[in-house]
Design goal:
This protein is an alpha+beta fold. It has one domain (about 1-10, about 35-200): Jelly Rolls, CATH 2.60.120.10. Helices cover about 40% and strands about 25% of the residues. It has 8 helices and 11 strands. The strands form 3 sheets. The protein has a 5-stranded antiparallel beta sheet, with helices on both faces. Strands 4-10-7-8 form a 4-stranded antiparallel beta sheet. Helix 4 (about 55-70) runs antiparallel to helix 5 (about 80-85). The longest helix is centred in the C-terminal third of the chain and has 22 residues, at about 180-200.
Length: about 210
């Protein structure tokens, strides 16, 4: 685990010595700035929006297929993709559901498998500004998963959607059981964010 953290640039200074090594991302939320609201886990959001859990084989294949063709995830081998898929859960969501809400502290990220997600930034006067629409293959929420910060925008289903969900606890389990694959996944997510930020020159649109 120590070597994985060093590979990711997350060495000893990034965690307290009394933290279990397999709880790095989960406990990271405890060390973030005092949140405006409690950390929200996917199980709570899923219940609130009526998300329905999907049987694993078909959506897991869909996730692997999308990421195998995604240039941002090109560093992941077939074995890495298989390891990743084992730590995701899969859900269907009806239209007009907030899967991510602006300013919340959420301990999960999403991958759109089917459908369309609107990404909106709420303005100080209350209106929502449409930033983009996420479709199959888009990753939502990876920034907060990695840095434990607040969400940048609302992500709302425009159509019925199928989603792959990775919780912070799932990422910790992957680090413990498949450290090399986890290192490449986190590296790919960080690269994805960096390239998007360089392209935009502004805060990320849907890396909330």
């Amino acid at each position: 685990m120590k070597n994985v953290l060093q590979l990711l640039g997350l060495g000893k200074a990034a965690r307290r010595d009394d933290q279990p090594e397999s709880q790095f991302f989960t406990t990271g939320f405890h060390d973030a700035e005092v949140p405006a609201q409690p950390t929200l886990h996917w199980v709570d959001r899923a219940q609130a929006i009526g998300a329905r859990k999907l049987a694993r084989p078909a959506p897991a294949r869909r996730l692997k297929d999308l990421w195998a063709r995604d240039r941002y995830m090109a560093g992941l081998s077939p074995e890495d993709l298989e390891a990743c898929a084992r730590h995701f859960d899969f859900f269907s969501v009806d239209a007009d559901r907030d899967v991510i809400r602006q300013d919340e502290y959420g301990a999960f990220m999403l991958v759109v498998l089917h459908g369309t997600i609107a990404v909106d930034r709420q303005q100080p006067w209350g209106d929502r500004l449409r930033l983009t629409e996420a479709r199959a293959g888009s990753v939502l929420g990876e920034m907060s998963l990695l840095d434990c910060g607040p969400r940048w925008s609302y992500c709302t289903s425009v159509t019925g959607c199928e989603l792959a969900v990775l919780e912070a606890s799932g990422l910790d389990t992957m680090i413990e059981r498949n450290p090399a694959s986890a290192a490449r996944l986190v590296g790919s997510l960080a690269r994805r964010l960096s390239l998007r930020l360089r392209k935009l020159g502004t805060p990320t649109l849907h890396g909330t």
